[in-house]
Amino acid sequence: MRKIIVLTDLHFMPEGGRIGHLDPAARFRAVLGHALTHQSDAERIIITGDLAHHGRAEEYARLRAALADCPLPVHLTLGNHDRRAAFRAAFPGAPCDDAGFVQQVIDSGDVRLILLDTLDEDAAIEHSGRLCAERLDFLQSALAGAGGRRVVIFMHHPPVDVGFDAMDAIGLADKEAFRATLARHGAVSQIVAGHVHRTIHGSVAGIPVSVLKSPCHQSPMMGPGTDTHASVDEPGAYGIVWLHDGGVIVHSEDVDVPHRRLLSYA
Q1: Angstrom distance (rounded) from CA 206 to CA 203
Q2: What is the reported pLDDT for 165?
Q3: Could you tell me the pLDDT band of residue 231, with boundaries at 50, 70 and 90?
Q4: Count of other CB atoms within 10 angstroms of residue 74
Q5: Which residue in 43, 48, 200, 228 could disulfide with 211, CB within 3.0 to 4.6 Å?
Q6: What does the CA dihedral 255, 257, 261, 262 come to, rounded to 10 degrees?
Q7: Up-side HSE of residue 150: CA atoms within 13 Å toward CB?
């Protein structure tokens, strides 16, 4: 069984920046440290966007410094808070496709990992995501070339509505085109996303979708009229994707929760 650590929605800010009273950089370091300590047998780390809060050079520089001593390979893609040019300037070695989108294919044994860039810098609705024709062509080529491997897709915006009006309004704009691309291939076992700052599970085209929490701030259960910026100070978290012969398992692990007392059911 192979293991991948997944983080999403880091929201790095300039030195001294806070989201509410939370320091995103400190929260990220705590979550990353926990993951590296308790999941030391992981083969890699994937971070699915909203790396920076404002998409500024200083924010990406702070993230780069935070990852400098990471002992595992780290793969990055972008979300709605990111800015592609600033990211690429800070991470010039990050893989991109021929059109400049921050997406890549990683073959790991019998599994193909596909990272998609859903950032739409010209979005008609701020913070919504998009997979334009060029990005969908990349996805189709990656799926067609899987060569019998099972596929796990990582992306920032979930490809499904999550039942929160505010978040669905800034979701992936072209879900139907994405679904149509998936329907032409039968190899996808799992989709992992972020954006909502909450653990949510669903499916698209019969494929399981797992939405993961942030290392920083989380979303409450959102009723009608709740603003997209509504956030709660709950523990930071990361995802663990286990790849095994029978399929894919996705866990969400909270960090810095109160002391856990083991209970006996004798």
Answers
A1: 6
A2: 93
A3: confident
A4: 17
A5: 200
A6: -40
A7: 15
- Rounded Cα–Cα distance for residues 236 and 217 (Å): 7
pLDDT at 121 over 80: yes
The letter for the amino acid at 68 is A
CB 90 within 8 A of CB 60: yes
- The Cα–Cα gap between 88 and 100 comes to 9
Report which residue type is found at 51.
L
| Size of the chain, expressed as the number of residues it contains | 266
pTM value? Answer: 0.95
Integer Cα distance of 249 and 21 in angstroms: 34
Domain ranges of the chain: 2-254
Q: Tell me, which fold does domain 2-254 have in CATH?
A: Purple Acid Phosphatase; chain A, domain 2 (3.60.21)
Q: How far apart are CA 164 and CA 246, in angstroms?
A: 33
Q: Biggest alpha carbon distance in the chain?
A: 61
Four-residue CA torsion sign, 244, 115, 63, 193: negative
How far is 219 from 197, CA to CA, in rounded Å?
A: 5
